[in-house]
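S.,

Sequence below, as promised.
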Amino acid sequence: MKNKLKLIIIIFFLSLIVSGCELNYNLTIKDDRSIYEEIVVTEKNSILEKKYDDYKEEIKEKELFYNDHDLYSSYESRKIFKSDYSGLKLYKDYPYGQFRYSPTYASFFQNYSFTEGKDGYILRLLYPVKENIYPDTNNSDEKIDKAYINIKSYLKVIDSNCDKYDEKTKTYTWEIDDDFFNNDQKGLYIKLSKEKDYQVIFMDFFREHSTAIITISIILVVLLTIAMYIYKKYRNGMKV
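The prediction came back faster than expected:
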């Protein structure tokens, strides 16, 4: 197993974290080059139950704390309660040119650039922040087992140095571990076309509005069924 990480960005999550926790730092690059940022920390319910008398109440209290936190008061938050894991998500939209002010990316990297070239755009997050890792600490409650940076783009991707790519979700993933921070040359690089990727745009739209879309679809099916029934009765010359 890779060495566990302790990141400064997770300082506001530390009282929730125990060994086995997973961090997903999700970025969605929009077609106008604005960036949607998510910080998602989850843990298995079986482990949370051992640490807290009522972990659901603990998560609720932490959400209130983050809402008042100086760095994250402008973020939206959402509690996560699933059958096998739970946690918290913080998220925010950054207009183009504003992502450099995110307190989160700065905990991983010392340098950020999003430049425009003749054939597209290049996003770079460079110079990993070594000070954010403490491999010698014996306190496993303040460590994280798995950390990932995941990127989706509304612009077609030309190239990247990601560790893996999910064809189904069109997500590019970098695994953040000790080797990542100990390599001065390691960083995040992704080159984007100026052409929109409508598949990702439609996938995200459906995901964000799935409840409304499904509800409207059901209503339309019911109305169509009733209309067909009435029409059939009418064609058969029966009163309705």
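The CA atoms of residues 23 and 113 lie 23 Å apart.

Coffee later?
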